[in-house]
């Protein structure tokens, strides 16, 4: 880790391009304008800002403060809360390997997964991504669970508001994604993230988070004011061109996931993104939304034609996610060695 700070690290050079993203105001009464801005963003890059989303700035700051409280714990305490097979709990540095072609090591970030709380005796707890969460005890972090559960609920409300605009942008009924069979029991996951201040070096394969696209329907990302997130609008370009996404106070950075790209037959974009560390600590909070376990994702009728047939076969949400998580996370047995 030490020698990665030598050489010619990629920080934030003055000539780096900053992406210009559309900004959607969820409080706007001009729905048509919001849908138009969102559709343009989904066709272009699959990234946009959402403002006036209803979660207060005071509460956002409280959740960030609670996140820092957890990551400031000794590693011995954090490892007691190591993620389980349901992907709940702590993920150490290097646990995730998002870009094995270009990364020498795993991601230089640590995280914490919090899903939908499902009691052990609930039949739904048998599903892969449902069950009880892993929580720090009150004597270690008082009020922590309550803050995270509240944020989880409020973020789901924001996500559903965004999916209504996405539905309209796809010429669907506004509640298409909000139907019980689609998002009635969503696989919605809150993930706290902490980048320790490692300096990334793309020439040496060292990244805060390797290049990847998200797995699900949409992701809401809240960040602090430290720049690090980059997107590549054309993943097939040689060489790839990366643009920074500037933090925007009080806003969510929203991006589309691979499932929505499949749903829309690649009309809407799921874009490669990565995080480069510049020596500063960085905190972010991601909220990933996927449909119900048993929902089958298949090409929308409005997104296919004789000239543009479906590019992907139908697939059950649960099946798709199990493979994607398996491909990107360390085997839990490796922590017992």
Automatic annotation (TrEMBL):
GO molecular function per UniProt: dioxygenase activity; metal ion binding; oxidoreductase activity, acting on paired donors, with incorporation or reduction of molecular oxygen
Keywords per UniProt: Iron, Metal-binding, Oxidoreductase
Gene3D superfamilies: B-lactam Antibiotic, Isopenicillin N Synthase, Chain
Record domain Fe2OG dioxygenase: where: 186-291
Xref: InterPro entries: DIOX_N, IPNS-like_FE2OG_OXY, IPNS-like_sf, Oxoglu/Fe-dep_dioxygenase_dom
Pfam families (alphabetical): 2OG-FeII_Oxy, DIOX_N
Family classification: Belongs to the iron/ascorbate-dependent oxidoreductase family.
Name of this protein: Fe2OG dioxygenase domain-containing protein
Organism of derivation: Nyssa sinensis
């Amino acid at each position: 880790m030490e020698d990665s700070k030598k050489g010619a690290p990629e920080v934030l050079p003055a000539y780096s391009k900053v992406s210009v993203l559309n900004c959607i105001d969820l409080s706007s009464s001009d729905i048509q304008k919001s849908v138009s801005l969102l559709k343009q963003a989904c066709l272009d890059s699959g990234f946009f800002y959402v403002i006036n989303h209803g979660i207060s700035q005071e509460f956002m700051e409280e959740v960030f403060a609670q996140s820092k409280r957890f990551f400031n714990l000794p590693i011995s305490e954090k490892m007691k809360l190591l993620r389980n097979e349901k992907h709940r709990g702590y993920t150490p540095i290097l646990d995730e390997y998002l870009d094995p072609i270009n990364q020498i090591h795993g991601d230089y970030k640590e995280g914490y997964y919090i899903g939908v709380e499902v009691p052990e005796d609930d039949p739904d707890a048998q599903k892969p991504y449902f069950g009880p969460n892993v929580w720090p005890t009150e004597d270690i972090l008082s009020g922590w669970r309550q803050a995270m559960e509240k944020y989880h609920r409020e973020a789901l409300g924001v996500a559903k508001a965004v999916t209504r605009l996405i539905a309209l942008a796809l010429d669907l009924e506004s509640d298409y994604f909000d139907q019980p069979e689609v998002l009635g029991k969503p696989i919605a996951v809150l993930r706290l993230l902490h980048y320790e201040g490692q300096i990334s070096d793309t020439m040496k394969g060292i990244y805060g988070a390797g290049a990847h696209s998200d797995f699900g329907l949409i992701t809401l990302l809240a960040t602090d004011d430290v720049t690090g997130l980059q997107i590549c609008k054309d993943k097939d370009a040689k060489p790839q061109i990366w643009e920074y996404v500037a933090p925007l106070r009080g806003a969510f950075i929203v991006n589309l996931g691979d499932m929505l790209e499949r749903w829309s037959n690649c009309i809407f974009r799921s874009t490669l993104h990565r995080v480069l560390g510049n020596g500063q600590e960085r905190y972010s909070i991601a909220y990933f939304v996927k449909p119900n376990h048993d929902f089958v994702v298949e090409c929308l009728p409005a997104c296919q034609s004789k000239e543009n047939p479906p590019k992907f076969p139908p697939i059950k949400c649960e099946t798709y996610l199990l493979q994607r998580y398996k491909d990107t996370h360390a085997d839990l047995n490796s922590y017992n060695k």
